[in-house]
Amino acid sequence: MQLLGFGLSRPSEFMTRPGTHKVWDVTLGKELPIFAVAKGDHSDRVKKGCWGVGLWLPIDSHFVLDFTEDQQPIVNNGYHVAFAGKVVYGVTDRDQLAMKVEVEHESDHMSDEAVINALDMYGDRFRRIDVNYQSMEVGVNWDRQYRFGTLTHRLSTLWTLDSWGHPGFYSPGVHGHAGILPSTRNYEPAYGFQFMPAATHGVHAYVAFDARLRTIFNFSKQWPRKESSQFSPSLVIGLRDFGHKNAPDVIVKAYYGVNPNGQFGKQNDYRLFAVGIRLR
Question: What pTM did the predictor assign?
Answer without folding.
Answer: 0.91
